[in-house]
Design brief:
Elements: E1 9-14, H1 18-29, E2 34-40, H2 44-50, E3 56-57, H3 60-65, E4 71-74, H4 81-90, E5 94-98, H5 105-118, E6 122-125, H6 132-142, E7 149-157, H7 177-193, E8 198-204, E9 215-221, E10 230-236, E11 244-250, E12 254-258, H8 263-268, E13 289-294, E14 297-302, H9 311-326, H10 342-361, E15 365-366
Parallel strand pairs: 1-2, 1-4, 2-3, 4-5, 5-6, 7-10
Antiparallel strand pairs: 7-11, 8-9, 8-15, 9-10, 11-12, 12-13, 13-14
Length: 372
Amino acid sequence: MNSLSLSPLRCALIGFGNAGRNFHAPVMAAVPGLELTAIVSSQPTAVHVAWPGMPVLAKPSQAFADPAIELVVIATPNDSHHALARAALLAGKHVLVDKPCTVTLSETEDLLALAQAQGRVLTVYQSRRFDADFLSLKQVLEQGQLGRLVQFESRYDRFKPQVLDRWRDNDVPGAGLWLDLGSHLLDQCLVLLGVPDALLLDVAAQRDGAQVNDCFHAQLRYDSLQPGLRAVLNAGSLVPAGSPRFAVHGTQGSFIKHGMDAQEDALKAGIRPRKAAPNDWGLDPQPGEVITWEDDHRVSRPAPEARGCYPALYVQLRDCLLARRGALRADASELPAPAVSAREAYQLMALLSRGEQSMRESSWVACDDLRA
């Protein structure tokens, strides 16, 4: 079955802030077979400047009530994810919610159970599975170039000294850097290494006037999977000098990467994937390197080239939902799956929650039961 031979998948986007405007609308528009048919926003002028002629709905309920809309994309403040996703699922829609799925594990469990009961797909927008540097590192590990891993370090540091008057920086449910950037770093770690044995989290509010955590340091132990393996995840808001994005070490070599994936900056600059030259989109301006020792000499080689591709997440979701719509098979397990499965959404939210528990208790928290 060619999914693109079916009629397009009609989608509604809820929210036109940074996430909706920069990460969802232009990425959806780059995927054939997806049709963004409405945006729910309180800023119709801003929507029409970016997307002339786009229908703008005042309330999410209007999108939920439209029988032609099959997929609802939620790009709103974190504490609204649960209520909006629940209403969309009850209306019979498939749902893609921006990370983190919700602000508590119980809310995520509720949504996953409801999606299963409704026979609908609930998935999470983990776009950084499609960063160029992550895909390059994934190839390095799959090829065994580093030998047995012993240390995995992943950082997402920025220099944003000003505390802005926005929900992300205010003392409200779902705010803070752990839920924001921790969602990215933990998800990438889950994909590459799996569920850790235990987790230890420390957070702080470092900026003048900070109301919520704006940096974190998480340690993960993996002894039962790879003896001696440790993972360290860091993010900070006061790092003007920058830091390595990845520093991964094994018994045979290291992978070192500086600089962030270029797709975010391109999207914020108004460059859309469909309009970018094919040889430019997703190109890493600072590719990683693999470092080994050969005959007592340090040898550095370029890491495998990989192109970042945020639209790939939407491509997988499109194929999953169009196959469900057009498939004649009764066994749903044969159908294509979204990039982020229900199990992965649960595991990530559980790890975020256990990180918060570790922070409250100032102790290691076991996580290996999440593999079951």
